[in-house]
Amino acid sequence: MDSLPLLQMSVDDSVDIGIKCMSLVGSPAIQVGWIAFSEHQVSFAIDNEDERIVFGPVLIPNQKIYRKDEQLGEYNVTTTAENIRKIREKFFKSQNTTAVNTNHQGAAVQAYLMESFISDSKKGISNPEPFNSLPDGTWYVGYKIEDDQIWNDVKSGKFMGFSLEGTFKLEPDQSEEDTIINEIEQMLNELKKKVELGGPGSGPQGGGGGGESTGGGKTVSISDPEVQTLVAKAIEAAPELDKLGKDAATKHGAKITEINLKSPDSIVRKTNDEENGNLENIKDAVRSTIIHDDKKVISNILKDFPQPPNRVKIQSHESNALGYQGNIINVKLKNGLT
Length: 338
Known about the structure:
Layout: E1 6-10, E2 18-25, E3 35-37, E4 53-59, E5 65-69, E6 73-78, H1 81-93, E7 100-102, E8 111-118, E9 139-145, H2 148-156, E10 161-167, E11 169-172, H3 176-194, H4 225-251, E12 255-256, E13 260-261, H5 264-274, E14 286-287, E15 290-291, H6 297-304, E16 311-315, E17 326-330
Parallel strand pairs: 1-6, 2-7
Antiparallel strand pairs: 1-11, 2-10, 3-4, 4-9, 5-6, 8-9, 12-15, 13-14, 16-17
Helix pairs in contact: 3-6
């Protein structure tokens, strides 16, 4: 189903656009059910009514949801965290918080919205148990069920989750790579406003790698002072880069490799064979690799960097001769090493 067209779901100011009703369903489209809360039982109490609240996610950012209709055929629909906020805002503005049915049937259910929030780790709003594996930007709701039969159906497992009912704008979704590139371009444009990119140690290619330029076709060797300076700077900067990478990986739930220092032999060989003797072009004397399944994580990592990156290069396995895929981020460290 990944080959199907992907449409982005959003809302606008049109009166007929937005959520009209919340439906209780047996199989929610987002494939994540709710949890049903009941009061703590008081010791020796004979009668104790349930709270009758069902709670769970309604929309999960960037999740693909399969759809099929006569007009569009088969397709996937998705929505961003930003659009989820807009959808929720319009839902409250339209005052449809008491509109509830079952399995998208017309009969109204006696129920109403009790709670609503969007997870946001930066604001200290975490995904609750047992939904802590869901991404930031997930919209959660809690509904009070007053209908006796419906509540019995909830407890028996007949209804397992929420499903939105309404009319939404559907537009072709940008590819993940296009989205990342656009976000990176915006970041670099902001960087251009703050710093002058044309001078030494700045610009898309980053700062000096250590020592004076050895360009012009000069052949370098391990004994050269410039090479020794670069190696020393890499060793000195390793702890800083290691912490920078581990902080980013931890925050975004990614894996990270151990810090890696390029050997003097490799530095000399790459400088002579690939960089025409220009030692300043060596930007991987010290490095680590952050690993995550979601390509969009790079955008979030870039936003969290304490200093803007000097260069970002997106590699596709289809265009790279060695089959590499990933994103190279060059940053200038405190000792001047890129």
